[in-house]
Amino acid sequence: MDTPEREVAAANDRLIYGCMGLGSVGRDDAGPGEELRQAEAAVGAALEVGITRFDHADIYRGGSAEAVFGEVLRRSPGLRERIEIQSKVGIRPGRDGAVQHYDLSGPAIRDGVRGSLERLGIERLDVLLLHRPDPLAEPAEVAAALAALRSEGLVDRIGVSNCSAAQIAHLQQALDAPLVADQLELSLYRHGFVDAGVLVNHPEAVTVDFPHGTLEHCAAAGIEIQAWGALAGGRYSGRPPQTQQEAATTALVADLAGRYGVAAEAVVLGWLMRHPARISPVLGTTDPGRIRACAEAEAVSARMSRPEWFALYSAARGRPVP
Ligand SMILES: NC(=O)c1ccc[n+]([C@@H]2O[C@H](COP(=O)([O-])OP(=O)(O)OC[C@H]3O[C@@H](n4cnc5c(N)ncnc54)[C@H](OP(=O)(O)O)[C@@H]3O)[C@@H](O)[C@H]2O)c1
Hints:
Layout: H1 3-6, E1 16-18, H2 34-48, E2 53-55, H3 64-74, H4 79-82, E3 84-89, E4 91-92, E5 101-102, H5 106-120, E6 125-130, H6 139-151, E7 155-161, H7 165-172, E8 179-185, H8 192-198, H9 214-221, E9 224-228, H10 244-260, H11 264-273, E10 280-283, H12 288-293, H13 297-303, H14 306-317
Parallel strand pairs: 1-2, 1-10, 2-3, 3-6, 6-7, 7-8, 8-9, 9-10
Antiparallel strand pairs: 4-5
Bound molecules: NADP nicotinamide-adenine-dinucleotide phosphate.
Residues 18-21, 55, 131, 161-162, 183, 228-234, 237-239, 282-287, 290 line the site of NADP nicotinamide-adenine-dinucleotide phosphate.
């Protein structure tokens, strides 16, 4: 893998590469080695634009995302020491008709982490996220499992995903270490995190699909907000628009991209990063060109004017702010 030579010096430390699309390619015509080639190309492009944080979960592509990433690490000596690896546990996927369920019991957390470490071929996760809130989880049991993993040196830092402020505060009370991240779906398309603040005391508030107070709680506690789905699955940056609203937003994104001299992806992410919550986007594209297109996102966020930001928000929500 020729990534070290191609790497640029400038760090892009607010961008995280999401590895959910790596691993079993799932096509009949995928020849041997295609998964590895795809993973090396994606990881190489991420490193090239200064991304050094990689997001996994034990369940991505049935474990094959972590397995192929482990192979990439083995083929690139020294890479492990230059990057941060984050993974998640707590979802039991449905198989053979079994019901999907969540599991944050002590054994599930421990076994999940050990499985990830084995597939990745590493000794420690830099960050472990609890993938989704488990309604049957006992905070004391979760805390004991996390403390044991940390004291054994298998996990460095801990965080959550898809959690509200109240859930974070409740869990934090039982823990002996601070939660460092909450990963949630946020984007120009899933803009509920903005609506939650804008539509206070307004009839439209009933439509808000984001847990109130979560950004504020995380800011006060120093918890990083990571955004999954940040590229909105390609809406506004190349995927054909499905509605008039999407078409109008796509046109506005293209116009701004032209004015800034950047790719549409950088505008979509720049809008997210312009928000003072200092959101860290997790990029899910496996296309090396699209990964590179994200490189200018933070620079766009620094340039984006208030009228431009509100124009994008209004276009995406389909009406002006009240
Ligand atoms: N915590 C959680 O519960 C959770 C849930 C989901 C995901 N995640 C994490 O967040 C990461 C990103 O999430 P995501 O993958 O759902 O969201 P995303 O980055 O918004 O979307 C990526 C998907 O959109 C496609 N796409 C992007 N631009 C496109 C374009 N111009 N035209 C057509 N398709 C386009 C990509 O296909 P190509 O690969 O072909 O570009 C890929 O399938 C994941 O990798 C994972 O690490 C976390």
